[in-house]
Amino acid sequence: MSANYWLKRWKDDDIGFHENNVNPYLDRYFTNLVPSIDSRIFVPLCGKTKDIAWLLNKGMHVVGVELSVSAIKALFIDLGLAPTLTQYGQLTQYCAGNVTIWVGDIFALTTELLGSVDAIYDRGALVALPFKLRKKYTAHITNITKSAPQLLICCVYDQSKHDGTPYSVSAQEVFDHYHRIYSLKLITCDAITNGVKGVKPANAVVWLLSRKNC
Ligand SMILES: C[S@@+](CC[C@H](N)C(=O)[O-])C[C@H]1O[C@@H](n2cnc3c(N)ncnc32)[C@H](O)[C@@H]1O
């Protein structure tokens, strides 16, 4: 999935993945993962999600990464914040209040630029990537976050009936990517009433990934 694919979707306003309300699983399950205020939460492939405002309102700090400049401009307008921009190599840092967003390719983000994070919130990130990139992505975020715990929201359906995003990511695949580093807990699996891109049945599956004790 190329950068141009996503940039074109933002340009064409083809952003069906964007939710106008906070994701209900975030509201229901995230505070179990990081109960303390002041936690620093990493939101990979963040788009202009309303979930960032929710995290900020809970007293958390947010660090995100997103390819699209227009998405991030819209995000800051929505938050009512005027960011300061700083260039770091291929990435531009947008920073205001308790939010830092890196604009550019997540694979250019390093541990040093990201800084320390307490948890990862993955909604629409893993499922946005084709299989080969998912392998690279899971290794990369585990590495740059030093295996911070994560709330991961996936969808599962018959991929042969829809070739594209959001990709179906099975329980076996989540296990294969993450079991060496994390203990995996399946929190819930709910039917998606309208299916995914018209494909039914489809389920939303929510995982809690906790770092294994060494
Ligand atoms: C399915 S959307 C999900 C956005 C957001 N998480 C949400 O829930 O609304 C995937 C997002 O990832 C961004 N993206 C895709 N590949 C990326 C990459 N390599 N680095 C940074 N962002 C990327 C896209 O521009 C898009 O906004």
TrEMBL record:
Species of provenance: Pseudoalteromonas neustonica
HAMAP family per UniProt: Thiopur_methtran
Name of the coding gene: tmpT
Subcellular localization, as worded in the UniProt entry: Cytoplasm
MF terms (GO), sorted A to Z: thiopurine S-methyltransferase activity
Database matches in InterPro entries: SAM-dependent_MTases_sf (IPR029063), Thiopur_S-MeTfrase_Se/Te_detox (IPR022474), Thiopurine_S-MeTrfase (IPR025835), TPMT (IPR008854)
Enzyme Commission code: 2.1.1.67
EC category: transferase
Keywords of the record: Cytoplasm, Methyltransferase, S-adenosyl-L-methionine, Transferase
PANTHER family the record matches: THIOPURINE S-METHYLTRANSFERASE (PTHR10259:SF11)
Protein name: Thiopurine S-methyltransferase
Family per similarity comment: Belongs to the class I-like SAM-binding methyltransferase superfamily. TPMT family.
Catalysed reactions, as listed in the record: S-adenosyl-L-methionine + a thiopurine = S-adenosyl-L-homocysteine + a thiopurine S-methylether
Superkingdom: Bacteria
Chief localisation class: cytoplasm
GO biological process: methylation
SUPFAM superfamilies named among the record's database cross-references: S-adenosyl-L-methionine-dependent methyltransferases
Residues noted as binding S-adenosyl-L-methionine in the record, renumbered to the chain: W10, L45, E66, R123
